[in-house]
Protein backbone atom coordinates (compact mmCIF):
# COMPACT_ATOMS: atom_id res chain seq x y z
CA UNK A 1 0.00 0.00 0.00
CA UNK A 2 1.12 3.54 -0.65
CA UNK A 3 1.04 6.49 1.74
CA UNK A 4 -1.67 8.10 -0.41
CA UNK A 5 -3.91 5.10 0.33
CA UNK A 6 -2.99 5.25 4.00
CA UNK A 7 -3.92 8.93 4.06
CA UNK A 8 -7.35 8.11 2.65
CA UNK A 9 -8.11 5.60 5.42
CA UNK A 10 -6.43 7.36 8.37
CA UNK A 11 -6.88 11.02 7.34
CA UNK A 12 -3.50 11.79 8.82
CA UNK A 13 -1.78 15.11 9.21
CA UNK A 14 1.77 15.07 7.91
CA UNK A 15 4.59 16.71 9.83
CA UNK A 16 7.40 15.43 7.64
CA UNK A 17 7.30 13.43 4.41
CA UNK A 18 10.34 11.26 3.73
CA UNK A 19 12.10 11.23 0.38
CA UNK A 20 10.34 8.05 -0.75
CA UNK A 21 6.92 9.11 0.53
CA UNK A 22 5.22 9.05 -2.88
CA UNK A 23 6.77 5.75 -3.98
CA UNK A 24 7.17 3.84 -0.70
CA UNK A 25 5.45 0.47 -0.65
CA UNK A 26 4.29 -0.22 2.90
CA UNK A 27 3.87 -3.98 3.24
CA UNK A 28 3.79 -4.44 7.02
CA UNK A 29 2.51 -2.61 10.07
CA UNK A 30 3.65 -2.86 13.65
CA UNK A 31 1.82 -1.11 16.44
CA UNK A 32 2.78 -0.50 20.03
CA UNK A 33 4.19 1.78 22.62
CA UNK A 34 6.88 -0.54 23.96
CA UNK A 35 9.78 0.08 21.63
CA UNK A 36 11.53 -3.08 22.85
CA UNK A 37 8.71 -5.04 21.18
CA UNK A 38 9.03 -3.05 17.97
CA UNK A 39 12.75 -3.84 17.84
CA UNK A 40 12.03 -7.57 17.51
CA UNK A 41 9.62 -7.06 14.58
CA UNK A 42 11.57 -8.56 11.70
CA UNK A 43 9.70 -7.48 8.58
CA UNK A 44 10.60 -5.09 5.80
CA UNK A 45 8.78 -2.02 4.46
CA UNK A 46 7.13 -1.40 7.80
CA UNK A 47 4.98 1.40 9.18
CA UNK A 48 5.09 2.01 12.94
CA UNK A 49 1.82 3.00 14.61
CA UNK A 50 2.24 4.30 18.16
CA UNK A 51 0.96 6.62 20.85
CA UNK A 52 4.52 7.19 22.07
CA UNK A 53 5.02 10.82 21.21
CA UNK A 54 8.78 11.00 21.71
CA UNK A 55 12.06 10.93 19.89
CA UNK A 56 12.46 7.33 21.09
CA UNK A 57 9.73 6.24 18.65
CA UNK A 58 11.64 7.77 15.73
CA UNK A 59 14.98 6.34 16.82
CA UNK A 60 13.39 2.90 17.09
CA UNK A 61 11.73 3.32 13.70
CA UNK A 62 15.14 4.15 12.25
CA UNK A 63 16.65 1.00 13.77
CA UNK A 64 14.03 -1.23 12.11
CA UNK A 65 14.19 0.73 8.84
CA UNK A 66 10.55 1.81 9.10
CA UNK A 67 9.18 3.91 6.27
CA UNK A 68 7.14 6.05 8.61
CA UNK A 69 5.68 6.64 12.06
CA UNK A 70 1.99 7.32 12.65
CA UNK A 71 1.11 8.91 15.98
CA UNK A 72 -2.42 8.05 17.11
CA UNK A 73 -5.03 9.86 19.22
CA UNK A 74 -4.25 13.20 17.59
CA UNK A 75 -0.81 13.48 19.18
CA UNK A 76 1.23 16.41 17.91
CA UNK A 77 5.01 15.90 17.74
CA UNK A 78 7.37 18.43 19.24
CA UNK A 79 9.54 20.59 16.97
CA UNK A 80 12.54 18.48 18.05
CA UNK A 81 10.74 15.31 17.02
CA UNK A 82 9.90 16.79 13.61
CA UNK A 83 13.53 17.85 13.20
CA UNK A 84 14.69 14.32 14.04
CA UNK A 85 12.25 12.85 11.50
CA UNK A 86 13.81 15.10 8.86
CA UNK A 87 17.32 14.13 9.96
CA UNK A 88 16.49 10.41 9.81
CA UNK A 89 14.39 10.69 6.65
CA UNK A 90 11.36 9.01 8.24
CA UNK A 91 7.85 10.21 7.42
CA UNK A 92 6.10 11.49 10.54
CA UNK A 93 2.31 11.52 10.56
CA UNK A 94 -0.54 11.88 13.04
CA UNK A 95 -4.13 10.69 13.05
CA UNK A 96 -7.03 11.41 15.38
CA UNK A 97 -7.98 7.73 15.27
CA UNK A 98 -7.18 5.44 18.19
CA UNK A 99 -4.56 2.71 17.97
CA UNK A 100 -7.28 0.09 17.50
CA UNK A 101 -9.12 2.05 14.81
CA UNK A 102 -5.88 2.80 12.96
CA UNK A 103 -4.80 -0.82 12.97
CA UNK A 104 -8.23 -2.03 11.86
CA UNK A 105 -8.24 0.40 8.92
CA UNK A 106 -4.67 -0.49 7.93
CA UNK A 107 -5.50 -4.20 8.13
CA UNK A 108 -8.42 -3.71 5.70
CA UNK A 109 -6.16 -1.80 3.37
CA UNK A 110 -3.43 -4.46 3.48
CA UNK A 111 -5.99 -7.20 2.77
CA UNK A 112 -7.22 -5.27 -0.30
CA UNK A 113 -3.67 -5.07 -1.64
CA UNK A 114 -3.15 -8.84 -1.36
Order of helices and strands: HEEHEHEHEH
User: What is the CATH topology assignment?
Assistant: Udp-n-acetylmuramoylalanyl-d-glutamate--2,6- Diaminopimelate Ligase, Chain: A, domain 1
Give the overall shape, derived from the CA principal axes. globular
Give start-end ranges of low-pLDDT stretches. Answer: none
Q: Give the CATH architecture.
A: 3-Layer(aba) Sandwich
Q: What is the share of helical residues?
A: 40-55%
| Strand order of the biggest β-sheet | 1-5-4-3-2
**How would a textbook summarize the main sheet?**
5 strands, mixed
Straight-line N-to-C gap: 9 Å
Continuous helix count: 5
Strand content: 15-25%
Total individual domains: 1
**Which CATH class is shown?**
Alpha Beta
The CATH superfamily turns out to be HprK N-terminal domain-like
Structural class: alpha/beta
Record field, number of beta strands: 5
Q: Mean pLDDT, nearest integer?
A: 92
Gyration radius over CA? 12 Å
Features:
114 residues, alpha/beta, Udp-n-acetylmuramoylalanyl-d-glutamate--2,6- Diaminopimelate Ligase, Chain: A, domain 1, globular
Q: How does this structure look, described?
A:
- By secondary structure, the protein is α/β, with parallel strands linked by helices.
- The chain has one domain: Udp-n-acetylmuramoylalanyl-d-glutamate--2,6- Diaminopimelate Ligase, Chain: A, domain 1 (3-Layer(aba) Sandwich).
- The protein has helices spanning 3-10, 35-39, 55-63, 79-88, 99-113; strands spanning 13-16, 28-31, 46-50, 68-71, 91-94.
- Helix 3 (55-63) links the parallel strand 3 and strand 4.
- The chain starts with a helix and ends with a helix.
- The model has no long low-confidence stretch (mean pLDDT 92).
